[in-house]
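Q: Sequence in, structure out?
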Amino acid sequence: MRARSRLPKPSRRLVESMFNSIGNIFRIEELKRKVLFTLAILAAYRIGIAIPLPGANPNALKAIFNNPNAGMLGFLDIFSGGAMSKMSIFALGIMPYINASIIMSVVQGAKIIPQLEMIAKEGESGRKKITRITRYFTLALATVQAIGLTTFASNPLPGTTEVPLAMTTPMHMALIVVTLVTGTMFVMWLGEQITEMGIGNGISLLIFAGIVDGFWASGFNFWRFVNTEEIGGLQAAGIVLILAASTIGVVWLETAQRRIPVQYAKRQVGRRMMGGATTFLP
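A: Exactly. Output:
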């Protein structure tokens, strides 16, 4: 007697589809090339995060970023994949580009600058011009943010006498600013390469890679808090349930679709009458 699968049919189909999709990566040559290219770009991004700025003292920042009340700094560190807390060459991450893109979208939507609206209506050439303007805007924002971060890191941290940047001469600070701006532009270029030659959505993948990097540390800290009873069993179960429900909800919303039925009329092909087919959109 054949044993029945314990998984319900919808779940079984979902699992089979997932494994088939993974198998297609190695069967389809073009898809395999894109996936390997994307992984290589992400590896280069992670290597860059591990390279510290000249004269940086990453240990001086651990007290701030490991503090649960780090606030906005902790949020920015998550998006930079831990690069800011390590004072790496990618400390600014992709945030200047995201900010520039959001501002450009708002300016176009609000029709603040008529020239941008006219450029956007030029089709593919207009889109390329908007992308070029966004890059220049990213360069300007990255320069301003690099100056701010360098100024912050060249002074003693609150409550301590430690300085994240050991050398604070004008020449050295200028070098730090140039390095940070170059790092941001390089990260932006990496994202564009993934979009054009990889599996797409390069900027989103870079952000995802940065967030995933913190999963292991967060999971380890959560397990440690549970073992030391700093977090009670009921509270820990509630956190796990909330995370699971949030994940299921996001997946459900992303995969949901509204099916619009489409009825095709009967038609005659030669001497035969073909019945009207019923399908749906999308």
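Strands lie at 260-263, 267-269, 272-274, 278-281.
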